Amino acid sequence: MTTASSGTGALSAVIVIDMINMYDHEDAERLLPSARRVVPVVADLLAAARAQGAPVVYANDNFGQWRSHHGEIVDAALAGPHADLVAPIVPDDEALFVVKARHSIFYETPLSYLLWELGVRHVVLCGQVTEQCVLYSALDAHIRHLDVTVVSDAVASIHPELADAALEMMRTNMGARVVRAQDVRFTGRE
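^ that's the sequence the OP posted. Answer follows.
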């Protein structure tokens, strides 16, 4: 069985990318079918991570609301027309939240420092959009010498053909493990 575990015993963290979303942006209609497919998988992945003691970090766009904090972002998404896609994956009280403004979860955010403080050396990426934010985040994790796993059935896309190419790029160029959610094993806190 292929697993997401880094094999080094390094602490794993699941990173949920841009799933707290109002889906009122350009390309949202193209993203929605894929998002609907992955939300239950992401919910199960989060439950597994929590059960195994792995940290859960949400890295989410701020939608141009620079004064907002994660509670406002979650509340706005839950009040939006696609709350059904947010409710199953709402951050719990233990989840960490990083607000981002660009594609990569690392660009101009405190995520690198947060992961270092937690002792995380292995990131498990899920969320959206595979061919954009997930791809750029995987690259930035790779150049930070983190072990990277991308959960192929827990990432949503706008352009399926680009998503397939992005997954292959992550596997080939970045050494990422690309696995299905059922094959993910986290190394949690002891």
